[in-house]
Amino acid sequence: MIYQGKQKIWSEYQKEIPDDKWYYVRSCIRQNFFPASEKMFMEICRNVLGKDIYENEHHTTCGGIAYHCDTIPQETAMTIVARQFALMTEAGYENYVASCITSFGNYTEILETWHENPELEAKIRELLWKACKKEFKKPKYLAHSSDLIFKFRNEIAERAKFRLVNQKTGEPLRVVEHIGCHYSKMFPSKGVGGAEYPYVLTGMVESWGGNVIDYPERRHCCGYGFRQYHVKANRGYSISNTHKKFESMAPYKPDMIITNCPGCPYFLDRWQYVIAEMEGKTYGENGFGIPVFTYEEVAGLVLGYNPWDLGLQLHQVAVEPLLDKIGIEYSPEDKYKGLNKKDLLRPELPQGIKCF
Amino acid sequence: MNEIVVIIGGGIAGMEAAGQLLKLGYTPFLIEKSDKLGGNVAQWHRLFPDMTPSGDIISTLYESCRDANIFLNTEIYSINRLKDRYNLILSNGVTVSTRYILITTGFELFDASKKEEYGYGIYNHVITNADLEQWFNGHSDERIDSSSINSVGFVHCVGSRDEKAGNTQCSKVCCITAIKQAMELKEMYPNSQVYCFYMDLRLFGKKYEDFYTKAQRDYGIHFIRGRVSEVGENIEGKVVVKAEDTLSGRPIRVTLDLLVLMSGMACCKDSSLASSLGLSIDSDKFLQSSDNILHITSSPKKGVYYAGACTGPKTVPETLAEARSAVLEIHNSIISEKG
Q1: Which residue of B has its CA nearest to A213?
Q2: Which positions in chain B touch A195 (Cβ < 8 Å)?
Q3: How would you label A286-304 residue by residue, b for 16+ Cβ within 10 Å and e otherwise?
Q4: In this complex, do A6 and B113 lie within 8 Å of one another by their Cβ atoms?
Q5: Number of Cβ pairs closer than 8 Å across A and B?
Q6: Average pLDDT, whole number, for chain A?
Q7: Average pLDDT rounded to a whole number, residues B134-138
């Protein structure tokens, strides 16, 4: 692999990301899958970086899942999105940041569609007014929340207590980066680094001390894919995609996976348990899986937040081997204790994949 | 004094035109920006359909044009239109006044790195058709491990017929070039597996179809109808290609020692010549002829003519024939002016 070749491409896909004053919209599913990630994003933006980032409880789904599953027409998704933009306008913000990759893709697609078809934008404005008497300005800048963490990756590195380095060997950790399909595959110019060799997560990993692995199925879908997993009959297809990715990355012996999509970390994490049960195969060291993280979780780890406050006990794949590699201290007995040391009860541990 | 004709571009069209003009008794000025004549063809090893060494073609053309005023490493500094003449100031300080300019600036090879999914400039064993010809010519290339070539792939239409890449035209010669190169590699490595990934095979020229048949029947080259979706690299550094075989209706994946991208013909990026002469650009971004059937070698500007791939992709024989045709047009114009 010729690193300079990638650098050339990265230099061609730069994205303007304003420094401050953001309106934030959460994902429909991330708070269930990885409950501390969005909280950590706000914590980093507000309390670590001191940025003005605003959210409001009245926003809804963007309609992206329903749109991609063909259960609602694009006009409906557009009207939902128009309402989100109206909330941003009412709050006095111009920079819109989405937590969800599919939302980001959905917003991008809608803004591009309106750009190409202004009459459709006019129709949506009319529909929104009829539905809820709201008006909106289009965002001046649209970003995914991983774009912001990418932008401030070096500031995070400066404040970091840990690096993505194996404490025992001094070697950078081998990191698989997995980009959500809707980040830049539809509109390469809207993603940091483009579609083929996105830089958004690679930039974070490099700033925080790790080495990124380029493996043959790097671009392949994680296996979620709405019409794969949400249609029950297709779930075998979902796991076969995930299996393909793990088989492809396994020879590189990755220490961890970092992702920027709501579905990807969940499926890359949970399907490892299923593959272990089905085939008796695990991809980490000594019977463990490969830990999978959101970028907010990784940022939180390098900044020194308590792993259990980051919600890492909710991962299927045990994160402890990675914490040990990095040298992050943690309390095993606190793993399943919630706020005020409330006992969350211990889950039943699987047989096929080693967990704590 | 004999009529001066300025030829801009020292590829095969310019060389052939210079030779023909000399034979007719004119004084050609052949201006080439690089340090040698021959253009793209000079970079090639052998030419289809008879596997003629391209060096032989260039040498023959040079023999016929060597008495022209040849300026290498020279660019056009400025062109001014006088009443019925053009005044050209060259970068070497020479000024030429002429009534006739023949543009033979040819094409540029499509930059394969623009097709990011194919990994040119990213993965170690991905090269272009031009790189392979250079290697055939004896130049070393660290991307080609000559001791271990067991499987090779060719991707047709890289930057041709590709709206996303901004080139909608067919480059005409890539299909037959891929077949030629596949056969050459197969001759060098008889036990290797060679795959050609194509969307259509456009084999219109003399003996082209015979080449194709021979490649399948005698060389065992695999032709897979389907576009490559992405290229990666495995832990051993081999190239991993994912494609669709549209005839069997299946996705396929092959691991290769070498992947060759058939870069197509793109128009010359430098449009300064066209703008200084006020020449029109066609919808395919090549120079626009007065008429694409009757007057392909004529520009809409009086005294300005075209030959070769500056007006669109051409084969070598077509380019040479156009050069002769353009010279005849110029000759006829001179004769009629003399009246």
Answers
A1: B235
A2: 116
A3: eebbbbbbbbbbbbbbbbe
A4: no
A5: 41
A6: 95
A7: 96
**Segment 235-254 of chain A within 8 Å of chain B by CB:** 251-252
Helix (H, G, I), strand (E, B) or coil at B298: strand
Cβ distance B117 to A194 less than 8 Å, yes or no, reads: no
What global pTM score does this model have? 0.92
Residues in chain B: 339
Give the end of a domain, one of A126, A145, A164: A145
Question: Which residue intervals of chain B are DSSP H helices?
Answer: 12-23, 54-65, 129-136, 174-188, 208-217, 272-277, 316-338
| Domain-embedded: residue A11 | no
Q: What is the mean pLDDT of chain B?
A: 95
| Chain segment B11-52, per-residue pLDDT in tens | 999 999 999 999 999 999 999 999 999 999 999 999 998 999
Range of the domain at B224: 111-265
- pLDDT (tens digit per residue) in A305-331: 999 999 999 999 999 999 999 999 999
User: Per the domain annotation, does A289 fall within a domain?
Assistant: yes
Do A252 and B240 count as a contact with CB atoms less than 8 A apart?
A: no
List the helix and strand counts (H, then E) for chain B.
7, 20
Which residue, of A128, A145, A162, is where some domain finishes?
A145
ipTM metric: 0.89
Q: Is B89 on the interface with A (CB under 8 A)?
A: no
Q: Is residue A89 one of the residues assigned to a domain?
A: yes
CATH code of the domain covering residue A332: 3.40.50.11810
Which tens digit of pLDDT belongs to each residue from B166-190?
Answer: 899 999 999 999 999 999 999 999 9
| DSSP line for B135-154 | HHTT---TT--TT--SEEEE
Cβ–Cβ contact A189 with B under 8 A: no
Last residue of a domain, one of B211, B246, B265: B265
Does A279 contact B at CB distance below 8 Å? no
A194 shares contact with chain B (CB less than 8 Å): yes
